[in-house]
Amino acid sequence: MGRPYRKGSKFAAEWQPSELLSDGQFSGRSTSNASNPLWDYFEANTEGPGIWKWKHYFEIYHRHLGRFIGKKVDMLEIGIFSGGSLGMWKSYFGSGCHIYGVDIEEACKAYESDSVSVYIGDQEDSVFWDKFISEVPHIDVLIDDGGHTPEQQMVTLEKMLPRIRPGGVYICEDVHAINHRFAAYAAGLVSELNAMDYSRPGIEDNVKTSTFQSECHSIHFYPFSVVIEKHAEAQHELPNLRRGTQWQPFYE
Ligand SMILES: C[S@@+](CC[C@H](N)C(=O)[O-])C[C@H]1O[C@@H](n2cnc3c(N)ncnc32)[C@H](O)[C@@H]1O
User: Fold this and answer.
1) pLDDT tens, 37-72?
2) pTM of the entire structure?
3) Distance between Cα 179 and ligand 1 center (Å)
4) CB of residue 79 inside a 6 A radius of ligand 1
5) How many domains in the chain?
6) 206-214: long-range contacts (C-beta < 8 A, 24 or more apart)?
7) What is the number of the ligand 1 atom nearest to the C-alpha of 123?
């Protein structure tokens, strides 16, 4: 890992401004917040319970969570602070959602309502999670916006990622600065996502997935945030397919 990691870091740190940005053309999906109901809600929230988010998170949220709008969804946000984000999620997902909030501060109990359940505890405490799981065994969407230390983020992920339902999404926020230990941990998860046992016969045609691969679809890195998506159905194999009858002889 060491040398390629340093090579990649150096390449990225020395990246030069692209002349392509000045011609006004782009392909694919815009990353602006135009037509993003979460951003609209945030901008309109000029008074009342506060919401505190990095601006670029709104596009990430809408990209990964848009498919849950209007569905029956159980969502957990770790880090309640002044309660405004709980209302934002409720408005975004609609009346079919139930919001669970976790915070270490007892004052956050004030934000409990029919559709919002608040749990007070330390996200770095695995016993707290055992108790939480005994009451809320499964959720669809988790956002870790709590204390933001790598230890808290790792304990929370190991307890709660297995509890995310098929097709669900796990977001860990505020993975700040170069060489962050949670980012290194997430890179370890990526390594397992690439697992392939070359000693197994037929491996070039069909990979029998590891348990992690069978359940975890993808891991996405953004500035300060890591997103993990789960498969909607378990993927037990990754076939390597060909179609067609004409092949060049030079590559077998
Ligand atoms: C950045 S604020 C959350 C902001 C909120 N999600 C929002 O969008 O406005 C972080 C919150 O995490 C809580 N917190 C800090 N350490 C924690 C811990 N160990 N376990 C649970 N919550 C924690 C703090 O009390 C604070 O309310």
Assistant:
1) 999 999 999 999 999 999 999 999 999 999 999 999
2) 0.96
3) 23
4) yes
5) 1
6) 206/237, 206/238, 206/239, 206/240, 207/237, 207/238, 207/239, 207/240, 208/236, 208/237, 209/235, 209/236, 209/237, 209/238, 213/238
7) 20
